[in-house]
Amino acid sequence: MVIKMEEKKHILTYEGLRKYEDELHDLKVVKRQEVAQKIKEAREQGDLSENAEYDAAKDEQRDIEARIEELEKILKNVEVVVEDEVDLDTINIGCCVKIHDFEYDEDLEYKIVGSTEANSLKGKISNESPVGKALIGKKTGDIVEVETQAGVLKYEVLEIQRSN
Asked: Is residue 2 over pLDDT 80?
């Protein structure tokens, strides 16, 4: 009896979906062509055993193919969050949230996204991160406590809004 593991759904906003589709198209149409040309030129130089350009081009080709495979896997099992339909009464994937950090006495803004799209440097936190997980389902005015390795963080939900 074979038990097939259910593949993890990749939750993306429409913006994230477009970004991955554009990257996949660029890799397949542009980058594959460029690297094929590099390999062809390196081959024309003769002896491949000591040809650094050939080795570099083959490495680049391997990286491109691995990324194409990764993107195709993500896009094959994607669930897109329609941000215009996000319920603004409670925090969910696809919304922006403004919270007050009690420890540092500052207001923070985050966009809640699926883990595939998360980028803390751009203010995008995953619904699977400790803070993201704690915020999901909360309402404006709620106090949220998040247990982290650094201790318990305490936030107040100030505002929930659409991200666009």
From this structure: no
